[in-house]
Amino acid sequence: MHEGGSVERPVHPTADVYLRVGAVLVILTVLEVGVFYVPAFRPVLVPVLLVLSAAKFTLVVMFYMHLKADSKFFTFLFGVPLLLAVGVMVALLFLFLGALTLRGAAGTG
Amino acid sequence: MTHAAVTHHTSMGLDNRKMAFWAFIGSECLLFTSLISTYLVYKGKSVVGPYPHDILNIPFTSVSTFDLLMSSLMMVLALAAVQRGDMKWGKIWLFSTALLGLVFLGGQVLEFSEFVHKGLTISTNLFGCTFFVLTGTHGAHVAVGVLWLLTLWVRALQGKLGPANAMTVEITGLYWHFVDVVWIVIFTVVYLIQ
Q: Is residue B104 within 8 Å of residue B68, measured between CB atoms?
């Protein structure tokens, strides 16, 4: 046991909250697939899909993985590598796809 | 070990297994992001087909996505049941989670078989290589999760799992939900954004 201090015991959501989050996740998935098939969304398809995906990701992490109620240190342990990973991904995309675009614009690619 | 579960806490008052597992999940973030980045960097650079729009089956994968989301719901319901000592429902939800995981794996086997039948293998083109490595790695994680869940279920059947071991179920859940959030990203990036 932890010596000389209180042990942190987070209060997890109830089954009712889990069910409501599950319903929202299903609705967001239906929206994602729906947006994919509606031609009117073509110009904004990528940002809309990324926002819906990020919303689903956040809901699962906050409620099902309990980061909303758990110690902020767990958020730190998860958030720092996640930010690092996203940063590396963005850098790689700029490095490869950005370079292609620049070459194309210069008429050399 | 329902009556003899030992808890280990760090000087911060946090469970050390849970802390280690969050660090592991952080490392897994880096693994999957590297695979997703590789897929994106090589996207549209295949010189021979089949190409993504020729072969990806969105309705089928949407059902698989729904299946995995529901398995996450079953997992948290299993944790809630174990925490309140309702082992009857704990066993039912744990088995349901594993079953939905198996359904997802079955769907992935069907999808891969269809792709190979249509001429897309890991060595066909850049799309095939990056797609199979990314989704295959995810599938391997799902398979490990299913085995882990079935092990917990068997322990529950033997009476060796109870509220005292709720942290074990919670850590299993963390792994399972992480596999789910990775799929949320893969579904959007690989299947929907073509």
A: yes
